[in-house]
Amino acid sequence: MKCFVGIDLGSTTTKAVVLDEGGEVLGRGITNSRSNYDLAAELARTEAFVSARFRILEREVERAAGKDTLSRLLFAFRLEQMLVQLASLEARILEEAGKLEPPSRRQTARDAVLAVFGRIRCEEEARFADPNPPARSDFFRDAAGSAYARLAAEIGGREASFELLVGLYDKCIVKVENEPLDLGFRDHIGKALARSGASGAVRAAVEAASDAELSAAATVGTGYGRARLPFPKEQIRSEILCHGLGAHILFPGTRTVLDIGGQDTKAIQVDAAGIVTSFQMNDRCAAGCGRYLGYIADEMNMGLHELGPLALASRRPVRISSTCTVFAGAELRERLSLGEKREDILAGLHRAVILRALSLLARSGGIEDEFTFTGGVARNPAAVRALQGLVAENYGPRRLNISADSIYTGALGAAHFARRSAA
Amino acid sequence: MTEPEKDRSMELQKEMLAEHFRRLEAAPETGEPVVYTFVPGNLTELVRSFGALPVLPEINALQSAMRGRSQAYIAAAEKAGHSEDVCSYVKCDIGMAKAGNIGPTGTRLPKPDLLLLSYTGCYTFMKWFELLREEYDCPIVFLQIPYQGEGRQTPEQRAYVARQIRETLVPALEKVTGRPYDEERLRESLALSARAEDDLVAVLQSAKRTPSPIDAYFGAVYYVGPIFSAFRGTAEGAAYYRALREEVEERAARGEGPVTPSGRLDRQKYRLVVEGPPNWTHFRDFWRMFADEEAVVVASTYSKVGGTYDFGFRHDAADPLGTLADYCSGCYTNRNLPSRVAMLESYVKEYGADGFLIHSVKSCNSFSAGQLPMLREVERRTGVPGAFIESDLVDARYFSAANLKNRLESYFQMLEARRGAGAPA
Fold it and tell me: The domain at B8-185 falls in which architecture?
């Protein structure tokens, strides 16, 4: 089957989207953008193809064995991928532990590491057995990191302290992230089938699906790191064009797009065909971008996803105008010392982020109907609420579109450019 | 490595500048008087008719930046208490003075015998020379140049400026130089100016051709150098512009594009009009961002910052002081927003541009104030899509190369996509 690939190499995450010949989304993949951009692009692409394979399988397997079978198979597949990465991480940490000085510390450290990884593997197996496992990050670094830290605190003792164990992890995780591992569909589908106890009919369907040729007829890259992509220049599009087209594909009535990413805020106007007519971006300073909220979350010792819900509880938002990320910590502590409530401060910070975006929107030509909000910050309910309020106040009623897949908007646009280029 | 291709006119200009700075360095010995003055609407012919040598602080600042020296000068000025938000030209100049006044070519600049201040559209000029006056303790002449708020100079304003030149400036120059006012010499100089201006206009208007034989922003920065600084009204200046014109006309006849840092730009995919001064700390990198995308600038407002000739003005030897008043008042930054919009509109239309770009500069409010409404209005009148990017003149801290490149690439791709979509482009 001919397909088209879009890759969006962002400052925080790298996304890939695979389209079929008709322009329907077959698969999506995401990974954290690490120091090795080539690998991040390759991983996101592999993930998108894995999810495309499962999408193709969906119909076949459901017909053969009912709805749940495929999700069990997918879970099994994810577990196999996880185990490969854990094995690599464990091997590297053991190797590091073997270099400790004085040598007397080595054995205790190795024993502790082995115990930690034994427990992580047990937990992963238990997670697989759980029909409703708790949600967690898609990224290996986050999932493995939090389990490792928790278990290191539990298992680590006087000989192999928590600090020592975490230090070993920190030395190795980047190496594991930067080593190409076999994480593709064909690498793990066999084991996943065995683990999920699939029937003969399912196996036959999987066999047929995995033999199906899935070849990328064209690929287009975009995003901050696009110059790093090993593509010729014609296959590179700016993220402005890709976000514009992606938003148009998701919501064809879109005329204005706001994208708030890790270090960029983009205000884009598009015509009825999704072609960009005007845009503005922050040029000299990244204050008020997604990274700002990340920093605030760190300062408040909260998860990024917890900020929005807490801010929504605010009754009396504090007025904050500075969006300098470096000053944010000081601003926060000052407000707390004045007795302001955390939720009120957070509501003020979210409003400040949106005010900055509104200034860019005004510069780009205002907000037309319909208005589509994309990027990581579009997942934050307090940012969305602040945006709704300020848009209504400044421009009157506007239809505000937010897609659950908004993080893939740029990659989606890129994939559509790939499809058009091949037409 | 092969030597990068260079135009003959560039070599000629380099020699002229080197010679001028040598004369300046020797001025304390030779006794040639020195007048510091600003570029916009400057009165070079008059100054030189008294045998004085002009020094232009903005040009020193921008050349220091092109040679990678501005950051240290700015740091020195900030150390002396100037805020980060002060115009970076000012800080670069003050810093240079504090570091021994070694000019951009490596020679020492003499102290001024006179500060000649006309604040053509820039109020920072006043504060700048106030600071220099403290530094040098020398006389200052302060010409009041009315802002062209109505879009044109009234006869009363013209008479007012001419009277100040006659009654204030001329006596001050006589006193400082010890020479009497020599109107005949001034007239000869003005005639040379007009000749050079004819040639410069021919050069700038050559960009109406396809392909354009010049880059009317990055390249024009060099082309306007002599006429906006010390060489207007001089024989060397007139000779330079004749040679430049010949060079450009030859290039046009061969159907060639301009020489850029990325090589000769014969294939020109995008024709742009640019508003605003360039960045100087990364001048060649900035130019390359355009040239690599096969974008050529066909008209710019920055190349009119010293004076505007392409709508018909020429220095008039028959009316020496009146023509100086016209010149002084008519430079780009002294014009109101509607005049600037009209100028940009005519450039977009007459030069067949398919893009219009504003490079906005944090340091320079005389340029930056009102640029966004201008952008929208030019878009509305021409149907050509605009773009807006920001950095600074000589403060490298505000030049984010990756981001600018990203914006420019996005803009060019947008022009391309709109062309493909059959939109007016």
Answer: 3-Layer(aba) Sandwich (3.40)
